[in-house]
Design a protein that fits this description.
The protein is α+β, with helices and mostly antiparallel strands and about 325 residues long. It has seven helices and 15 strands. Helices cover about 30% and strands about 35% of the residues.
Length: about 325
């Protein structure tokens, strides 16, 4: 198309092979934003035959998911927020075939679950998994020289360094989506201006001066901000937003449109749908995707269509 060691809650002496729990591993983030002891107990009650593990630090979910694949798990269910979900998917990668992925929304934002129409109520989300319905979804593959391939399930933001992104997350937790937008606006004004060149399919090349770039597989970020209206993680494409370098007076008009989901209509935002993108940036840009940061002058994004089966309804 152009355009640490796991803490085991349950041990099984023999695997269970019923349709629902066959070779099932559950990985929980105990520090997830909405995790409680009551919710942990509910998970144990509803998944009595599953192998339940708990991550111990950032990056550990990825390690546990990779181990589960090697041990023959047929379904891997991750409980946590968007960062934990991203770790789980990257731990499975690239061995997606034969694995069904499940999400228990236990984070603060739960934006990827929201984009897949998975209930944010834990008991209802478990009901969806028990129903056994699955859909194949796309993932965005990110390649940077000198770094392993990463898979982006939801959204990656480019143009904000790690310190600025942590500030965004803190303001979201304290003030919600509107607070997040306010800090994004402040960051756009204070961040580096980037000259970017985008190479798209059919040798299409676009150049622009930007403050930030968003690469999205699904529509929501920061607790329900519909930053990519129309983005669909099962349409074989991904969405790109270029936030052009703007002045303070222009930004004052842009921020409310983001909150309303009408920013595509403004002159300061350019929206692209594509299946691949090579991005050249001067100076080097930092991309953030669910807690993972990469800085470089060149990034390659490629859609992997229908690569992961997820417990969800079409």
């Amino acid at each position: 198309m152009c355009v640490h060691v796991a803490q085991h809650y349950k041990f099984r002496t023999e695997p269970s092979y019923n349709e629902f729990t066959a070779m099932q591993t559950i990985i929980l983030n105990p520090n997830a934003g909405s995790m409680t002891e009551e919710r942990r107990q509910l998970i144990e009650e509803r998944f009595p035959d599953a192998n339940i593990l708990e991550s111990e630090e950032k990056g550990h979910t990825e390690h546990l998911a990779a181990e589960a694949v090697r041990d023959g798990a047929e379904s891997i269910i991750v409980g946590g927020g968007d960062g934990t979900i991203g770790e789980g998917i990257n731990g499975i990668a690239p061995n997606f075939e034969g694995i069904t992925f499940g999400i228990l929304p236990l984070g603060t934002g739960n934006d990827f679950a929201r984009g897949l129409k998975i209930p944010l109520d834990l008991a209802s989300a478990i009901d969806k998994i028990e129903a056994g319905n699955t859909i194949p979804i796309d993932l965005i593959q990110l390649q940077v020289d000198g770094a392993p391939k990463r898979y982006i399930p939801n959204i990656s933001l480019g143009g904000f360094d790690e310190e600025a992104t942590c500030k965004l997350a803190a303001h979201y937790k304290n003030w919600g989506p509107l607070g997040y937008i306010a800090v994004v606006a402040d960051g756009i004004l204070s961040t580096t201006r980037y000259h970017v060149e985008l190479v798209l399919p059919c040798d299409t090349v676009l150049s622009a001066e930007v403050s930030a770039i968003m690469i999205a597989n699904a529509p929501y970020m920061s607790g329900g901000i519909n930053i990519m209206p129309g983005a669909n993680p099962a349409d074989g494409q991904f969405d790109v937003i270029l936030i052009k370098a703007v002045e303070a007076t222009e930004l004052a008009m842009l921020a409310p449109s983001v909150a309303a989901g009408t920013h595509y209509e403004t002159e300061w935002v350019e929206h692209i749908k594509t299946t691949s993108l090579t991005l050249h940036s001067d100076p080097a840009m930092t991309f953030h995707a669910d807690g993972h940061y990469q800085s470089n002058t060149e990034f390659s994004f490629q859609i992997e269509p229908s690569v992961l089966n997820v417990f969800a309804s079409a």
